[in-house]
């Protein structure tokens, strides 16, 4: 916790120093973000822009496009699950001492718009809903891993295998809206309010294992001082209420 506070203070002091020296007060930042963090990052980017005057563009890149951005820019910050960022620290793509946890996204369940909503208010009722569903869909990322672990804890892996679809591209709600499966499960923050779908509820109790995302400074950043100030804002107490409005929790400090 002390290291995060020290880092944040250093970033803010750096930003103040820039202003005192009369350098340009605004920057044009690019944040590369993971799917599960998009709503929260966009909300924080808007708030940071209003506060500082910096322009912040949030992009969700994948595959070769993401690799090009990471290697050559333009990009300043990247967010991702800890396992995703770890190799980037190892290969020197990100500045290691800037990796900062900032958000936790819990899991939820949705159905196609207008379909009956199952009761998943308890673990037993969630289990019954999974067994009753004709088809189930969830992703292969962090949320998918945690959902699969929960299904295994319920002893349902073998029973549900034949009617389970693991998505590969885009949010689960895209598939759900098309009718590819009956119920979809992913992070709550990217499921609520999606056209063609109805959000049911968060997963119950210990089965709602959240996905963590961190933010880090990319080595290719041309505006590291402003980028560090953005990190400081993302992990500050001020960020908490902003994140909660997007149905996630700030990471514990």
What does this entry look like structurally?
The protein is of the alpha/beta class and 253 residues long. The protein folds into two domains: 2-103 and 213-250, Periplasmic binding protein-like II (D-Maltodextrin-Binding Protein, domain 2), CATH 3.40.190; 107-207, Periplasmic binding protein-like II (D-Maltodextrin-Binding Protein, domain 2, 3-Layer(aba) Sandwich), CATH 3.40.190.10. The protein is built from ten helices and eleven strands. The protein has helices spanning 2-20, 38-52, 63-72, 82-90, 123-132, 142-153, 157-160, 172-178, 224-234, 239-244, and strands spanning 28-32, 55-59, 77-80, 100-105, 107-112, 136-138, 164-166, 183-187, 197-202, 211-217, 249-250. Residues 1-5 and 12-23 have low confidence and may be disordered.
The coarse overall form would be elongated
How far the N terminus sits from the C terminus, by CA atoms, comes to: 5 Å
| Secondary-structure content class | alpha/beta
The CATH class of the largest domain is Alpha Beta
Work out the strand percent: 15-25%
| Name given to the CATH homologous superfamily of the largest domain | Periplasmic binding protein-like II
The H/E string reads HEHEHEHEEHEHHEHEEEHHE
Low-confidence stretches: 1-5, 12-23
Strand order of the largest sheet: 2-1-3-10-4-11
Number of helices: 10
Radius of gyration in whole Å, from Cα?
20 Å
Strand element count: 11
